[in-house]
Each structure stands twice: as structure tokens, then as C-alpha cells.
Design a protein that fits this description.
By secondary structure, the protein is an alpha/beta fold. It has nine helices and 16 strands. Helix 3 crosses helix 9.
Length: about 375
């Protein structure tokens, strides 16, 4: 028998911990994920997956057990920049991506490989460029992969929590050029116009705007490069369900006396209900491990937003790891929580085995709504 598996067909804890450590030892910041994709393709093949790397650079592993439902588990390969030395200490595994989101992805790989009694097809995907504005990996999956019967997105929720939804995101770039002039000249300078653009955005969103509240928008001034003659400012707005992206862009343009405002990316907020089959399956897994499940809403954005815009299927986000450590200099995951996450996913897959399989000849999804 393959040493990675127990006699019952589950992935061993030793293999699971080693897999995650090796993933952390491979740097994979956005746009540089190929080495990790190649590594995972080889590992997943050894675990019984049929694997390939698609044109976008996503690694895709498929295990077919029979004619039952198709469940997709999707996490991301890329991390933000920054080096966190990989080490084990007091039951914690440190490394860039331990939480966001190699831990959740590794848990998915192990859980699906050990789901020997699942009657249908399991698809595990590690996508590229989730940490970038355009989410190119998830967009490629949405365009080229058949929609599954259920979807779990791998992001750190905490092993005993399930994420029901995320805010949307509107990424903007304002650029302006002005003629050279003396600083004391009363005409507006490019740097001043850039600051005025940010102030106008804040005013339009209103005094109740907040990143801390799911049903209110929140703005971030991501980057500002400016002098008297040229300026570029990147702005990001996290948006609640039903937010009027086009109206905001139109109103902001009306307040800008010159320069150009571009929409770099727009994705709507998403939210599922407590009764969603994917949510219920994950909740069952958490309860069987004797914990009280928490159902949460996130004020950030994930690949769940991208896929939910066109895939009207059961879905939820789940993964071991403390999301407050996302991008942190001491990013780490508790190994016990990581292993519990594998168990929760394994139980959830057994629950999702009872879903009816969809008609694979269903019509293709409609193009993504865009804001210009």
C-alpha cells in the first residue's frame, strides 16, 4: 500500500503535514506559481488523481469514482510577496501561505484523495493570481470547466467556521497630467487632483462607509504616485450586495475636472444561505468533531465572488487557519487545526455524495457583467 495512505484509505497525518511543509518551501507569489503547480501535479498524481496544468497555469486534479455528483474544491496557489521562514514550532507551521491559502488547499488535496467512498467525481484545483485584481485563474476555471454540482472555496475560515459570503470589489485607477508650473501658482496641481479624487470617493460613499460591516461599502487608497505634473492613484471599494457600481463610477467621474478614471476590475458581492447544501455539509463535519460551527460573512473578496457570478450552485468557503494572519510577517497555522480541517472536508464530501448530479449539457454561462 502507498505509504501516504492508512489501511482505511485516508491520507496519513504524516503525509498531510509533510505535503503542506513542502508547499510552503516553494515560493509562489502571484505570477510565479508554476513551480508549485508542477510540484502539486506530481504529488496529486501519486495520490491517484488524473492531473494537468491548464493554459492559465492552474493545476487541476480529478478523481472519478462513478456516475454520482461532481464536487469541486478550489483554492489558490499564489501568495502575496514576502518571506516567512518555514519552520515548525510548538505545534505551529510557519511560512508564507500557511494560512492564505496553502493550508486550505493542501487540506482539500488530502481530503479528496482519502474520500474513497465518494460515488461521483472530485475535482481539486489550485488556481493562479487570486491575490491580484483580475483573478485570472478563477476566471479561466469559470470559462473552461463544466460547472460542478457543488463547490467549496479554500480560504482560511478557521477549522470550525464556514464562510457564507464576501463583499464585492471595485478597483479604480485615476490618472491625471498637468502643465508644469510654479508651486505657488493657484491652478490645481496633479498631486492635488489625485487627493481630491480620493476625498470625492470618500464623500460619495458617505459617513457610514466601513470595512468592518458587511452591508456597507468601504474604500481603500491602495497606491498614490504624484508630483505637480503627473499623478496616479489606485482605489479599491469593497461593496455590499446590491451595490450600484456603475452609479458610483459615474458620480465620481462627474466630480473630476480633468484626468481619466478607469475601472480595473469589478466583481459583485456574493452570499449563500444557511440551508445551502455545501454549508450544511461543512457544518455537519464540524459538529461531528464536537465543535459548535460559526457561520460568518467576510468583508474581503475571494474567488467565490468570481464563480458565484455565473455558477448558481451550492457553494461555501472553508479552510483551516486564522484569517487574521493573512499576509502577516508571522503567518502560521496550527497543525492540529489543519488536520481537523482535512477531517471536516472528508465528512462534508460524504454528505455531498447525496446531491443529484446536474445535466452536463446545461447552457454555457453568460459573460461577466462589466463596468466601464
Amino acid at each position: 500500500m502507498n505509504w501516504a495512505f492508512t489501511s482505511s484509505g485516508k491520507v496519513t497525518e504524516t503525509y498531510a503535514a509533510g505535503l503542506l511543509r513542502r508547499m510552503l518551501e516553494i515560493p509562489s507569489c502571484s505570477y510565479h506559481e508554476r513551480e508549485l503547480a508542477d510540484f502539486l501535479a506530481e504529488e496529486m498524481t501519486g495520490l491517484g488523481y488524473r492531473t494537468h496544468i491548464d493554459e492559465a497555469g492552474n493545476v487541476i486534479g480529478v478523481i472519478e469514482h462513478g456516475p454520482g455528483p461532481t464536487v469541486m474544491l478550489l483554492g489558490h496557489l499564489d501568495t502575496v510577496a514576502g518571506h516567512v521562514p518555514v519552520r515548525s514550532e510548538d505545534g505551529r507551521l510557519y511560512g508564507r501561505g500557511a494560512v492564505d491559502a496553502k493550508g486550505p488547499l493542501a487540506a482539500m488535496v488530502c481530503a479528496a484523495a482519502g474520500a474513497v467512498d465518494f460515488p461521483g467525481t472530485l475535482v481539486v484545483i489550485g488556481v493562479v493570481e487570486e491575490e491580484t485584481p483580475r483573478s485570472r485563474g478563477a476566471m479561466a476555471v469559470r470559462a473552461r470547466q463544466q460547472r460542478p454540482d457543488a463547490l467549496v472555496i479554500g480560504e482560511p475560515s478557521g477549522w470550525s467556521s464556514v464562510v457564507l459570503g464576501y463583499k464585492g470589489k471595485l478597483d479604480l485607477r485615476y490618472t491625471v497630467k498637468c502643465a508644469a508650473t510654479h508651486p505657488s501658482n493657484p491652478v490645481p496641481k496633479a498631486s492635488e487632483l489625485a487627493v481630491a479624487c480620493w476625498n470625492a470617493l470618500v464623500e460619495l460613499l458617505g459617513p457610514d462607509a466601513s470595512h468592518a460591516v458587511f452591508d456597507r461599502p468601504g474604500a481603500t487608497l491602495c497606491q498614490l504616485n504624484a508630483d505637480l505634473t503627473t499623478a496616479t492613484v489606485d482605489l479599491s471599494v469593497r461593496t455590499p450586495p446590491g451595490f450600484d457600481d456603475e452609479g458610483l463610477v459615474r458620480a465620481l467621474r462627474e466630480r473630476l475636472p480633468e484626468g481619466e478614471l478607469k475601472v480595473l476590475n469589478s466583481v459583485a458581492a456574493c452570499r449563500v444561505g444557511r440551508a445551502d447544501p455545501a454549508v450544511r455539509a461543512l457544518v455537519t463535519g464540524i459538529r461531528r468533531l464536537h465543535a459548535q460551527p460559526r457561520l460568518v460573512l467576510k468583508t474581503a473578496t475571494s474567488d467565490m465572488n468570481t464563480l458565484a457570478e455565473e455558477w448558481d450552485i451550492p457553494m461555501a468557503t472553508y479552510g483551516p487557519g486564522d484569517s487574521s494572519l493573512d499576509h502577516a510577517d508571522d503567518e502560521h497555522i496550527l497543525l492540529a487545526d489543519y488536520l481537523r480541517g482535512i477531517d471536516v472536508l472528508t465528512i462534508a464530501l460524504s454528505e455531498l455524495a447525496h446531491l443529484p448530479a446536474r445535466d452536463r449539457a446545461a447552457a454555457a454561462p453568460q459573460p461577466l457583467r462589466s463596468v466601464k
